[in-house]
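Revision sheet: structure tokens.
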Amino acid sequence: MKQFASIFFAAVLGSVCTIAAYQWWAKDNVNATQYVNGAPITKVAYTVNDKGEAIPMDFTSTAEKVTKAVVHIRSTQTESTRESQQFYFDPFRDFFGAPPQGRGNQPSHSTGSGVIINAEGYIVTNNHVVKDADVVEVTLNDNRSFKAEVIGTDPDTDLAVLKVKETNLPFLAFVDSDQAKVGQWVLAVGNPFNLNSTVTAGIISAKGRNIGIVNREGATEQGNTAIESFIQTDAAINPGNSGGALVDLNGGLLGINTAIASPTGAYSGYGFAVPSDIVSKIVEDIIKFGVVQRGWLGVSVASVNSDLAKQYDLDIIEGAYVSGFAEKSAAKEAGLKEGDVVVKLDNTPIKTSTALTEYIGRKRPGDKVQVTVNRAGKELKYDVTLKGRDGKTSVVKAEERDGFTSLGIELEDMEAKDLKRLELDNGIRVKALGNGKLARFTEMREGFIITKVNDTQVKSVKEFNELLKKKKPGDLVILSGTYDDFPREFNYAFRM
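Predicted:
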């Protein structure tokens, strides 16, 4: 009997020690099951506070902070009868855009979201939210409304910067999107279906997504110049969320919500945001220079996979395969060759062509990048000085832009011999006509020679830009000129 009592006592003591040790271990281990009000909490349902203690997941403080800095944007545009009778392909109407209301000569309206990025009234949104708008109105979370000025746009990233004449505004700070991880909790904040200040939660589903939606109309024979490296999230976003905030649980701005992948036009589980590292660079360029400064390697690339590796007998199955070079290519001048596989830019590994495009998209003309390539199994390093699209390494000045983005026009100065041949004293030529106001509201075609802006003669692209800078939204502008093949005067009118 005494032997049985000893064994029983030893068993009880061992159990007590085991339980005590387990509880002590669990206290310092957030992976262990913990309880709140008697209910167990799982890893998905809790986070860790400053003391390292597991606490229930709570989005309320972040939502309260972020909604104050997210605005509702209403864009108004006057459509011509000619436009309403034609079909203009706009991929964002299928993916994300709120359809305009109105037809014929009646004003049309579209809505979206924006994020205040500093206390001085600067707001970032999507280009497609304010594209071709005659009037842009911003409504804050506290219901104050302001007319906004479009400071600049970048179709290649589908971003735009607005400014309102108000200070001391709540704003969100950028955080490093490179540090964001797949599986990380995020919140999406915007105004879907005109429902103001809507907050949804989800996780980052993937990074570096290229869905081929940005700036399709800007594609040329050399390919699309768009930069796509989206953060993919399953936080519910819908039409009207365009330009809204994707934030981490501290309220840091991780990206600008831009598109959804959906067979119906509404949320189906996949949303895409421009990463903050791209957004911050674009915003800084527009505010500082008035125009985006974009460096170019001057290469055509494709993502390496097992099929491409087999086709070209490559030793690796990751990287960006160099299939060709542009004119005045910075990469070619530095020593890169067709068939090279870019595997690293500076200290950043490059596994896809999208990763290369994103990294270079953060650079400016004149920036130096060390490019590591795999050539026939050997790694070689080249120092490349990036160029602009004009082949120069200098920063592009705002007054040197060929026309304004909203007009969709690219201009070039004319040589004296061409003016003399046409018996003209002055003029500049429309080199290209894209998807802008002139294509939408007039019958102008490429090759038109602009001689006057509202009866003021123009002799250079710089003069043209200076004249239009003085115009205010709604001002009537008349461009007068002629064509090489039809020498009589034409007049094209539109409103700024």
